[in-house]
Amino acid sequence: MNLVCKVTSSHTSSLSVESLIRRFLHETFDCRHLYIISPWITLFEFERPFIHLPFVETRRVDEVFRALVFAGVDVRVMMRCVDDSIDLGLLRLLGLYKLSQEMLGMSQQHVTSETLKYIVNRVGELLKTLRIVITLRDILGENLRFDTPASGWHQRLHTKLYLNDKSAILGSANFTRSGILTDGNWECLLHFTRDSKLYQDALKVAHRHFDASKGFDECERATLSLVNRLKLLDKPATSLEELESYLTELYQEISSIA
Fold it and tell me: What does the pLDDT read at residue 108?
């Protein structure tokens, strides 16, 4: 059992959080299953190439996921749904922006530059989340799961658990650039092997989380219901791809005047 922490520039062991995650992913190529349970997931790039021949040579996490699936590993990922990334205040600002544009035709003169910059930044973050979820859906299919409100939970997902057939990692780090890479957040991760009782407990937790989770369709419905209810779009969005396309155009438009 090992404890690996990021605290400023020092570590509690000779192993960094990124190195631990890299080793864990390397051993996963010899496993049947991989569970990644993390509220926030980004498709970040490792600081140096991840090489596991003959399957993959890349810095990109999404390509590592694709390689694991290609190698026959049952990759199961659970995260928060897109609806949890949507700022209702942002949607209201977008609604005001749209109304100003329609009624005055000169919205940039009636919305402050600070507000426009805020909108651009937040829409950009929402677009990243949408693209991550769509990409993971394309890679994992039904193995991408969410903690949507439809699951009946009163709280949102907060667990950070990574588990394969040989070992597990439990701690504070989300599967994101700031959670994993050296220059990110201060994090601590506990790594333990299959022969420990803690591993068996962690495996039960992973199973329970996935049993209570919902699929992509439920997450899509929850997200579109929230967006369409505020009538932000000219017509209701029918898919996350359609929402992503609309927000991309809006992002480009507002960026040009911000």
Answer: 46
User: Do 87 and 81 contact (CB within 8 A), yes or no?
Assistant: no
| Segment 222-256, tens digit of pLDDT | 899 888 887 667 778 899 999 999 889 888 888 88
Q: Are strands 144-146 and 74-79 parallel, antiparallel or unpaired?
A: parallel
What is the average pLDDT score of the chain?
87
Asked if pLDDT for residue 30 goes beyond 90, the answer is yes
- Would you say 162 and 37 are in contact if contact means Cβ atoms under 8 Å apart? yes
Q: What is the pLDDT of residues 127-174, one digit of tens each?
A: 999 999 999 999 999 999 998 764 454 578 999 999 999 999 999 999
100: tokens are 């100003």
Domains of the chain listed by start with CATH number: 2-255 (3.30.870.10)
Q: What is the 3-state secondary structure (H, E, C) of the chain?
A: CEEEEEECCECCCCCCHHHHHHHHHHHHCCCCEEEEECCCECCCEEEEEEEECCCEEEEEHHHHHHHHHHCCCEEEEEECCHHHHCCHHHHHHHHHHHHHHHHHCCHHHCCCHHHHHHHHHHHHHHHHHHHHHHHHHHHHHHHEEECCHHHCCCCCCCCCEEEECCEEEEECCCECHHHHCCCCCCEEEEEEECCCHHHHHHHHHHHHHHHHCECHHHHHHHHHHHHHHCCCCCCCCCCHHHHHHHHHHHHHHHHCCC
State the maximum Cα–Cα separation within the chain, in Å, rounded to a whole number. Answer: 68
